[in-house]
């Protein structure tokens, strides 16, 4: 019975590897932020493209629109830290010319369960050799994608395709005040408290990351993502900003823009606002 | 060390090789003890000292109960039990004491909060208590006795407490069931197929079902729940119910499978609990090692159902509240236990009042669904602090018209499906066609499960019961 089970497993495993070989990764089919992050990270590592720049950060910088920044890859991961994206970056063969590091959430520690997926040489080798082991090729994701493809095939094709001369209108979606207020209040409380020891420890870790990135020939630039104006000058925000600036005196910082931005929940930019901030970011990097 | 980590697989393979090498056949128990101590010390080596101290106290007091002066037997048994409970209270409940009675920003409150929670403490202290009670009561003298050789008793008891498959999250072993099995094992007598089935099913339930559900149900927590529709909240609540089953029964199946690889039979901890048609049946099917422990070592000594109805209800409440608090240092666990105690008492009262109302084939499925719904709601007290549970119900009422996240709901249903199929197959076990099909094609199912373990696991997470 065990032998037969292993034969069935081998057949299925080979079949999934063949399908995975031809699969184009798409984060659209991910079920959760963690899965999206894993797919995003794998897509960077196994991409044959050489990126000019990479963004590291948290879910705040994750909102940035890299389609507006040619040659950029966004390794700012939802619910994670610069160190998680940093581990992914360092596990790849080549590093970009420039690495942009978001400084808002540097105190969030590395998620070792996540980075363990990329730092183990044996597992990385296995994922390179056997594409079915990568998260974007999970059977459930492949099944969802197949259903989506079938649905599209079954949709009737219009006789005359309408000319697509309308520009996509991007709207901002905001939470109702009854939800937004409590969320903002949580952030107001959190940003009013600060832990100097924790921030100093985080800066040491950040220095280690920056040193590793630079030792492989990349330049580092820091930037700060806009959040709700009520939070931008609170003790925690100011402490992080000043501590990082003091620790990296000769580095370039892209400061907050003069204009204020609206967020969905106090921290994360709404969709249109993210486009506006990316435009500001682009303008700043082009000043070089 | 997680059962689903590479380092654990390596430790297991090395241990198995040494264990069955003929040259080491006389050292099988010491090999398992060393391996278990490495397993336990891997993440926080200093906590090994507490495990060894706890084992040492149980070895000494149980030996004294068996071979000390007869008039001192009670003293040694009581001392051992009190020390076990003190260890548990100090290391597990200090945060609860701190948060309830002290200012946690400084002084004693701060100090109590800093006491580390040793993994598996609830399990190994209960096993120590079971050893002492069994030796003192001498009820199982036909199955189990304390060795007169101190060295043998030391080795056997250290092995009993530390054997790695059950060390961290049970099943809670009973001395009289485990000690008689301690002897030399031969690989040719090991029944590999049940071990294989337990391991594959256990890893599948944990890594594919529970770990995937964990990321789909995390929005039950505050403040995320505020942005979820009522339908999402309901489905996530049921999803968590399936998740906690898959997580803990998965762990228990792995533990039983691992123990069988070394020739030891440890008790099954779950018996398809979500087919229960009553709360008392649920507790005969869920975390069986804990419920039998509580029954044997707490409920029956309190008087059980022998002292009239009122005392029975009180005994049920005491047992379930203490059983609830055993799970963790938060009052919400006590509330959870109290709720279960009340439900058991009400159910008993109802059955006494209307003993003629039986379970016919129309009522039973309805009762199964009813019990499942109530139990699922009560799991919220496991997932969330009490205040957030209230917030959950408030949001459930307010967010009825919010847009539904159909993708999340579909994925929760998809990953819950294996648990439902697992229970349904058990219900259909008497159907000959189904039984024949299951036996004939089980290799396809297990081949598929292995594929899914390797290719469709969720993000690695600790077992929920590790915190207890």
Structural topology:
The complex is a heterodimer of chains A (288) and B (468).
Chain A: H1 2-22, H2 33-45, E1 53-57, H3 59-62, E2 72-76, H4 82-91, E3 98-102, H5 112-119, H6 121-129, H7 139-154, H8 177-192, H9 196-215, E4 219-223, H10 229-232, H11 235-247, E5 252-254, H12 271-286
Parallel strand pairs in A: 1-2, 1-3, 3-4, 4-5
Helix pairs in contact in A: 2-4, 4-5, 4-9, 9-11
Chain B: H1 6-20, H2 28-41, H3 48-67, H4 73-101, H5 107-114, H6 121-137, H7 150-162, H8 164-167, H9 175-178, H10 192-217, H11 230-261, H12 279-285, H13 288-302, H14 309-327, H15 331-353, H16 363-383, H17 386-398, H18 406-427, H19 432-455
Helix pairs in contact in B: 1-2, 2-7, 3-4, 3-6, 3-7, 4-5, 4-6, 10-11, 10-18, 10-19, 11-16, 11-17, 11-18, 13-14, 14-15, 15-16
How much of the polypeptide of chain A forms β-strand, as a percent range? Answer: 5-15%
Give the class-level CATH name of chain A: Alpha Beta
Count of helix runs of chain A = 12
Total DSSP E strands of chain B:
0
CATH topology name of chain A, in short, is: Rossmann fold
């Amino acid at each position: 019975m065990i032998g037969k089970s292993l034969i069935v497993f081998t057949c299925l495993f080979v079949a999934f590897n063949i399908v995975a070989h031809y699969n184009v990764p798409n984060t659209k089919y991910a079920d959760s932020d963690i899965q999206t992050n894993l797919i995003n990270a794998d897509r960077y590592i196994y991409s044959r493209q050489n990126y000019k720049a990479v963004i590291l950060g948290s879910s705040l910088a994750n909102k940035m629109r890299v389609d507006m920044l040619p040659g950029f890859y966004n390794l700012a991961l939802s619910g994670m830290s610069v160190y998680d994206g940093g581990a992914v970056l360092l596990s790849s063969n080549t590093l970009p010319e420039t690495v942009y590091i978001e400084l808002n959430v540097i105190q969030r520690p590395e998620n070792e369960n996540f980075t363990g997926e990329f730092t183990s040489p044996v597992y990385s080798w296995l994922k390179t050799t056997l594409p079915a082991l990568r998260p974007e090729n999970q059977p459930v994701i492949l099944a969802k994608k197949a259903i989506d493809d079938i649905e599209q095939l079954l949709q009737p094709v219009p006789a005359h395709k309408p000319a697509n001369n309308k520009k996509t209108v991007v709207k901002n979606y905001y939470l109702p005040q009854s939800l937004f207020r409590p969320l903002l209040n949580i952030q107001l409380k959190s940003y009013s408290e600060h832990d100097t020891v924790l921030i100093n420890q985080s800066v040491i870790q950040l220095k280690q990351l920056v040193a590793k990135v630079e030792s492989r020939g990349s330049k580092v630039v820091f930037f700060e993502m806009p959040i709700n104006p009520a939070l931008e000058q609170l003790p925690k925000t100011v402490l992080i900003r000043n501590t990082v600036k003091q620790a990296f005196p000769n580095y370039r910082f892209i400061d907050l823009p003069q204009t204020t931005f609206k967020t969905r929940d106090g921290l994360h930019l709404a969709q249109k606002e993210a486009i506006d901030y990316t435009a500001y970011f682009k303008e700043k990097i082009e000043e070089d | 060390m997680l059962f689903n980590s590479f380092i654990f697989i390596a430790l297991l393979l090395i241990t198995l090789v040494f264990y069955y090498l003929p040259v080491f056949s006389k050292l099988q128990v010491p090999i398992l003890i060393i391996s278990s101590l490495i397993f336990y010390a891997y993440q926080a080596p200093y906590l090994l000292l507490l495990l060894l101290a706890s084992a040492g106290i149980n070895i000494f007091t149980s030996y004294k109960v068996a071979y000390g002066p007869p008039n001192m037997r009670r003293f040694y048994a009581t001392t051992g039990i009190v020390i076990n409970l003190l260890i548990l209270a100090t290391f597990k409940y200090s945060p609860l004491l701190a948060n309830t009675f002290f200012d946690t920003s400084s002084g004693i409150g701060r100090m109590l909060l800093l006491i580390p929670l040793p993994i598996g403490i609830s399990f190994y202290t209960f096993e120590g208590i079971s050893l002492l009670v069994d030796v003192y009561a001498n009820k199982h003298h036909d199955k189990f006795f304390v060795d007169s050789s101190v060295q043998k008793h030391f080795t056997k008891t250290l092995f009993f407490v530390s054997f790695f498959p059950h060390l961290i999250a049970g099943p809670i072993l009973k001395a009289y069931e485990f000690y008689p099995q301690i002897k030399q094992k031969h690989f040719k007598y090991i029944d590999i197929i049940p071990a294989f089935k337990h391991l594959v099913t256990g890893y599948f339930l944990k890594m594919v079902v529970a770990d995937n559900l964990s990321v789909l149900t995390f929005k039950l927590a505050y403040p995320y729940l505020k942005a979820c529709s009522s339908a999402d909240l309901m489905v996530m609540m049921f999803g968590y119910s399936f998740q906690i089953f898959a997580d803990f029964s998965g762990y228990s199946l792995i533990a039983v499978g691992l123990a069988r690889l070394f020739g030891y039979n440890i008790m099954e901890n779950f018996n398809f609990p979500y087919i229960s048609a009553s709360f008392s049946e649920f507790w005969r099917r869920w975390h069986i090692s804990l419920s039998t422990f509580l029954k044997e070592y707490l409920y029956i000594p309190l008087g059980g159902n022998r002292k009239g109805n009122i005392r029975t209800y009180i005994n049920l409440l005491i047992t379930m509240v203490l059983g609830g608090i055993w799970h963790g240092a938060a009052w919400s666990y006590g509330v959870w236990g109290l709720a279960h105690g009340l439900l058991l008492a009400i159910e008993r009262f109802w059955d006494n009042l209307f003993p003629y109302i039986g379970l016919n084939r129309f009522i039973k499925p309805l009762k199964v669904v009813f019990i499942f719904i109530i139990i699922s709601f009560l799991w919220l007290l496991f997932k969330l602090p009490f205040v957030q549970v209230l917030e959950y119900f408030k949001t459930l009422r307010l967010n009825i018209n919010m847009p539904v996240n159909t993708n999340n709901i579909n994925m929760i249903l998809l990953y819950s499906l294996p648990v439902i199929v697992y229970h349904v197959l058990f219900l259909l076990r008497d159907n000959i066609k189904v039984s024949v099909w299951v036996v004939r094609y089980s290799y396809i199912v297990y081949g598929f499960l292995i594929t899914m373990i390797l290719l469709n696991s969720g993000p690695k997470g600790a077992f929920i019961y590790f915190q207890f």
